[in-house]
Every structure is written in C-alpha cells, then in structure tokens.
Amino acid sequence: MAEVLDVALRLVVIVAAFLVLPLIVGQMEHKAMAHMQSRLGPMYAGGFHGWAQLIADGVKFAQKEDVIPAAADRRVFALAPAVALVPYLVVLIVIPVGPGLVGADIDAGLFFVLAVMGVGVLGSIMAGWASANKYSVLGGIRSAAQLMSYELPLVLAASSVAMAAGTLSLEGIAEQWRWWWLPWQAIGAVVFFVAGLAELRRPPFDMPIADSEIIMGPMTEYTGIRFALFMLAEYAGIVVLSALTTVLFLGGWQGPLLPGPVWTLIKVFVLAFVVIWVRVSFPRLREDQLQKLAWVGLVPLALLQLALTGVIKVLMV
Amino acid sequence: MTGYFSSYGAVVVLLLIGVGIFAGGLFANRMLRPSRPTPDKLMTYECGVDPVGEGWAQSQIRYYVFTYLYVVFAVDAVFLFPWATVFAAPGFGMTTLVEMFAFLAFIALGILYAWRKRVLAWT
C-alpha cells in the first residue's frame, strides 16, 4: 500500500510540474522577448505587468469553437495534438530532480527518453498531413526532415554521456557527474542542446512553421483548444529539453549550499531562458542550411566528442 | 509486481494520465464552446484565399537521400548504447577503444562519401 501511495505521489508531482512549468516558461518568454525587443507586450490583464494574460488566453482557448475543416482527415487531425503533447509528459517520469527523487528509475532511461521524445515530432507530421492544406503538408514534410537530420547528433551526443558515466540510467548519470565533465563534454552539450532545439522546431530552426513562407505550417488549420495543446506541447518540450540537458551535461541536482531540487530548477530555467534568448537573437535558417548544419556540422562534432570521451575514459580514468 | 517491469507500470499509468488530460481538455472545451458550423467556416483556411485544387498536392521530397543516411546511421547509433555502458569495464580498455575508432571511422567515412557524392547539398 505504501508503495502504491509513493508512486501515486510521484505521479501527482510530475503531472503538476507538467501543467505548471510550461506556463512559467511561456510567461518568461512573453516578458523576456518584450524586454529584449524594447516593447511592452501585454500589460493590462491582472494589473501587475499583465501577469494574468496567460490565464486569459487559456480561458479564451477553452471556450473557442472547435473547427475541423471539412476537407481534413478528421481522426488524424483530431488526434495529432495528443501525439505531440503526451510524449513530453511521459518523458518527465525518468528525469531526476534529486537523489532518489525520480518518477521511476528505468535502467535504460536515456534510451527511453530519446525514443519517446522522437514520438512528439510525429504529432506535427500528422497535423501537417491531415490538414489537407498545401502549406501544412510542406510544413509536416519539413518537420520530418528536421527530425531525420537532428535525431542522429542528438543520439550521438547523448551516448557520449552514457559512455562517460557507464550507465544509461539518468539518475546514475547525474550521480556520476563531476565538475570536470563540463569541459570534457562541452562539445556534446552544445550539440545536444542545438539538436534538441531543432527537434522542438524552435527558432532559429522553425522552418516547419515559418509564418512568412507557409503561414503556420502544420498548425495553420488548428483553432481553439487543439491549437492551445500544440502550444503547450512546445513549451513542455522546452522544459523537457532543458531538464535533459541539465541532467546529462550540467550535473542535475549537484551544486553547493541549496538543496538538490532547487539546483535542478535553477539550471532548467537558466537553459529555458537561453532557449528564449536564442529565439530573439537569431534569424531563421533556410531549409537547406538547416540540413547542412546537421550533417556537415553537428554530426562530425558529435563523432569528435565520442572519440574524445572514449580516449579520456580509457586512458585517464 | 516488483523488478524490471514494475517501473514500466508507472510509465503506462502516466501515459494514461496524459491521455486523460487531453480528453479532459477536449471535454471541457465541448461543454464551454459554441458550435455553429457554416460551409465557409469549414473551408480549408490555407493562406486566407479560397483553396485551389486538392490539399494533398504532389510535391517533390528533396531530402529523401537524408532519409537513407538517417536510417543507416541511426541503426548504427543504437548499437552504441549497450556498448557505452561496458566499454570501460576492467579488462576491456584498449580493445574497445580500438573498436570505437573502427566504428567512428565507418560513420565518418559514410558521411564523407555522401558529402563527396554531393548528396548533402540541396538539389
């Protein structure tokens, strides 16, 4: 009985984090972007700095009419937001926030995370195909291309950490982490983070939803709650990517003075801020530049990191 | 139920919760929303102009070569994971290191070949 309660409590915390953290990141994006671009942004709702704008948006989305175009492939169209969103919730179960503080310690955790995160992109491909809209199809195909190109550097960079730690369990990896892993795994960390950004389709890798070329890509035909769920999936994706980078490359809960979970949260939000910062600072890449960056840039760098990890691990440690 | 599969039990429960969140959101939306469909509203939006022809237009997929590359390399990369956990175990050391370089050489050679064949360029 106690065991069941324990698992239930962990799941409740995970669901709460899944519903709250993406909204905080969204709010942070509103404010950080407004400041970086020297504009106010929404300032009225709720009084202080428009803090209630997100809530107002949520209420609006919840009561909007659900329009499914007559030409669309109804079932796939209706299901796509779930395919985009749910994997990011499931991934959270293996991300540790402190020693022993993890939903379920799966011994192949790293593998599990990479496999499940790949599923999220399928939602975007499904949406693009099912919309029966030429631009959406293009957007979906671009999503597929992006997944194809960036999954490989992501996997290679992640396996470099697995080599360094000698385990696939995320908790084990964070436990093994020492400060000198920072310079040792630096290339891998950058490759992982950049490839992760590309997989989330965040700017500067947002060709699938490039609004000046293909309207809103796969999400063009979506309205109301389904569109909101796609948005939630995007921010949940940011949280998951930041948390993964934290656990794999920044030592997870390790840090002086403050308790472990606080350190995890601090690192996650710093990385989420970087994600937003990158969005504001860089122009969108062209589709062919994107492919080139992956195959000519990130994959060789990831291979270099693998070689470096292997040599140092065998010769020094 | 303890052991290997019990941790995956929690994963399945969380998956069901996720599906529940999605269904709950849609249900709340159904309770709250108006529903007044008109033919104009149900027309594909596309770019704001009435759509011409079918939505599932034929298009050339320019990156299909990348797809082949991806399949080849991703299958290779999967083998890294079981190997990564044991390669530095006592008694392996240099052997696995040499193995690793053979592995990396294969992947690097593949990419170099693709690059020389100019399939990494946008056609």
UniProtKB/TrEMBL annotation, chain A:
<feature type="transmembrane region" description="Helical">
    <location>
        <begin position="76"/>
        <end position="98"/>
    </location>
</feature>
<keyword id="KW-1278">Translocase</keyword>
<dbReference type="InterPro" id="IPR001694">
    <property type="entry name" value="NADH_UbQ_OxRdtase_su1/FPO"/>
</dbReference>
<comment type="similarity">
    <text>Belongs to the complex I subunit 1 family.</text>
</comment>
<feature type="transmembrane region" description="Helical">
    <location>
        <begin position="110"/>
        <end position="132"/>
    </location>
</feature>
<feature type="transmembrane region" description="Helical">
    <location>
        <begin position="152"/>
        <end position="173"/>
    </location>
</feature>
<keyword id="KW-1003">Cell membrane</keyword>
<dbReference type="GO" id="GO:0009060">
    <property type="term" value="P:aerobic respiration"/>
</dbReference>
<protein>
    <recommendedName>
        <fullName>NADH-quinone oxidoreductase subunit H</fullName>
        <ecNumber>7.1.1.-</ecNumber>
    </recommendedName>
</protein>
<dbReference type="GO" id="GO:0016655">
    <property type="term" value="F:oxidoreductase activity, acting on NAD(P)H, quinone or similar compound as acceptor"/>
</dbReference>
<feature type="transmembrane region" description="Helical">
    <location>
        <begin position="7"/>
        <end position="26"/>
    </location>
</feature>
<keyword id="KW-0874">Quinone</keyword>
<dbReference type="GO" id="GO:0005886">
    <property type="term" value="C:plasma membrane"/>
</dbReference>
<feature type="transmembrane region" description="Helical">
    <location>
        <begin position="294"/>
        <end position="316"/>
    </location>
</feature>
<feature type="transmembrane region" description="Helical">
    <location>
        <begin position="179"/>
        <end position="198"/>
    </location>
</feature>
<keyword id="KW-1133">Transmembrane helix</keyword>
<feature type="transmembrane region" description="Helical">
    <location>
        <begin position="227"/>
        <end position="250"/>
    </location>
</feature>
<keyword id="KW-0812">Transmembrane</keyword>
<dbReference type="GO" id="GO:0003954">
    <property type="term" value="F:NADH dehydrogenase activity"/>
</dbReference>
<dbReference type="Pfam" id="PF00146">
    <property type="entry name" value="NADHdh"/>
</dbReference>
<dbReference type="GO" id="GO:0048038">
    <property type="term" value="F:quinone binding"/>
</dbReference>
<comment type="subunit">
    <text>NDH-1 is composed of 14 different subunits. Subunits NuoA, H, J, K, L, M, N constitute the membrane sector of the complex.</text>
</comment>
UniProtKB/TrEMBL annotation, chain B:
<dbReference type="GO" id="GO:0005886">
    <property type="term" value="C:plasma membrane"/>
</dbReference>
<keyword id="KW-0520">NAD</keyword>
<dbReference type="InterPro" id="IPR038430">
    <property type="entry name" value="NDAH_ubi_oxred_su3_sf"/>
</dbReference>
<feature type="transmembrane region" description="Helical">
    <location>
        <begin position="6"/>
        <end position="28"/>
    </location>
</feature>
<dbReference type="GO" id="GO:0030964">
    <property type="term" value="C:NADH dehydrogenase complex"/>
</dbReference>
<keyword id="KW-0813">Transport</keyword>
<comment type="function">
    <text>NDH-1 shuttles electrons from NADH, via FMN and iron-sulfur (Fe-S) centers, to quinones in the respiratory chain.</text>
</comment>
<feature type="transmembrane region" description="Helical">
    <location>
        <begin position="96"/>
        <end position="115"/>
    </location>
</feature>
<comment type="similarity">
    <text>Belongs to the complex I subunit 3 family.</text>
</comment>
<dbReference type="GO" id="GO:0048038">
    <property type="term" value="F:quinone binding"/>
</dbReference>
<keyword id="KW-0874">Quinone</keyword>
<keyword id="KW-1133">Transmembrane helix</keyword>
<dbReference type="InterPro" id="IPR000440">
    <property type="entry name" value="NADH_UbQ/plastoQ_OxRdtase_su3"/>
</dbReference>
<dbReference type="GO" id="GO:0008137">
    <property type="term" value="F:NADH dehydrogenase (ubiquinone) activity"/>
</dbReference>
<dbReference type="Pfam" id="PF00507">
    <property type="entry name" value="Oxidored_q4"/>
</dbReference>
<keyword id="KW-0812">Transmembrane</keyword>
<protein>
    <recommendedName>
        <fullName>NADH-quinone oxidoreductase subunit</fullName>
        <ecNumber>7.1.1.-</ecNumber>
    </recommendedName>
</protein>
<feature type="transmembrane region" description="Helical">
    <location>
        <begin position="63"/>
        <end position="84"/>
    </location>
</feature>
<keyword id="KW-0472">Membrane</keyword>
